[in-house]
Amino acid sequence: MDQLAALAEVFAYLSLLTIGGGMAAFPEMKTLVVDVHQWLTYPQLIHLYSVGQMAPGPNMMVVASFGQKVAGFPGAIVATLAFFVPTGILTYVVGLVWEKLANWPWRQSIQYGLAPVAVGLAVAGTISLGKAAVTGWITAAVAVVIFVATLETKLNPALLILAGAVVGVALLRG
Amino acid sequence: MSEAAVPGAPKVTASLGQIFGAFLLIGATSFGGGVVAYLRSSLVTKHNWLTDVEFLELMSISNTLPGLNATNMSILAGDRLGGWLGAVLAVVAICLPGFLFMVAAAVAYGHKGDNPLVTAALKGVAAAAVGLIGATWYQLGKKSIRDYFDMVIIGLAVLAIVQFKLSVPETLLGVGALSIIHHRPGFIKKKETTHEWISSLR
After folding, report:
1. Among A70, A135, A145, B66, fewest CB within 10 Å belongs to which?
2. Model confidence, pTM
3. Which of chain B's residues have a Cβ under 8 Å away from the Cβ of A112?
């Protein structure tokens, strides 16, 4: 029960940090999940997070797998609800009043001002993930090739991630 | 909010079953991210439930608020189509397939996570994820930079988190406030057009 309450608290907090997307919350997710609560080791977190990039739908469903690891299926439900309900209610309420704010000049200032901050938070999250996932020249080469392939081809990103798995099996054993 | 829809746009509603089905299909087929593009193709192109202008309006709310764009969009579009119950069904439906996928992944990982082959595959997956996420944000970053100062803001936000280990709320209070003040009313340089934004989705 204590674990469920802790899951709810951690993932509700993390959800409020996802300005512009889930990546913004990554550094603090690592701190809370790995260092503070020790629910997972850092490699476990990286593995599940990366598999989460293959899952269909919103790209933070990885929180369900964290909850599942910590407290079984109830944990998966609690972590997911905690992650999506608070921001969901906020969005619903702001959606109701948004039209009324149409002529409020700061609305667009907030929108334009937060856009580059969101990019910076995501870049910082990607750097944290990269520090843990890029451990040698093979993983560095995989990251660079997938970066270029994502920008230059129309291949489905899930296939690119699977290609990473194939390279891993072939070259990263032991 | 349905009453306050974009002026002149016809008020469209859909049955709760239709809403659930459409969002479930998006949630089950949008492998590899980029869910917003799937949302647009379903809601605007396939079902004609929203116009591009309405979609953009909902998207701008989703972008500004915390929460994922895909789930925020589902809530706002679901509400527009079927009230609060539509919003709930839309967000549950879009999350459900990925939720089951990741629960299964966690269970499988518990059984096979220390298998050397699985560990090797996951190392490759993690490296690929870095490349994919980096590329996604490179593309989004190019779109959201309006002037050189925005690049300074991106750099400051990265430094705040990576170098100075500040939390996201602290970074928002400092760098976020600076950026919003920079874009204060009267100083907006470039107005984004619907057309530009939509072509950027393709």
Report:
1. A135
2. 0.85
3. 146, 183, 188
Q: Cα separation of A81 and A103, whole Å?
A: 34
Contact by Cβ (8 Å): B144, B138: no
Both ends of chain B: CA-CA distance in Å?
A: 29
Q: Say how far apart CA A126 and CA A131 lie, in whole Å.
A: 9
* Domain range summary for chain B, segments of one domain joined by +: 2-113+191-201
Task: Break chain A into its structural domains and give their ranges.
Answer: 2-133
Given a cut of 60, whether residue B190 has pLDDT beyond it is no
**Residue whose entry in the numeric block shows the structure tokens 């300074």:** B152
Contact at CB, A161 and B155, closer than 8 angstroms: no
Whether ipTM > 0.90 holds is no
Position of tokens 């469920």? A4
- Quickly list H helices, B113-193: 116-144, 148-158, 168-171, 177-182
pLDDT tens, position by position, A126-147: 998 999 999 999 999 999 999 9
* Residues of chain A neighbouring B176 (CB-CB closer than 8 A): 113-114, 117
State the Cα angle at A98 between A93 and A102, rounded to 5°: 165
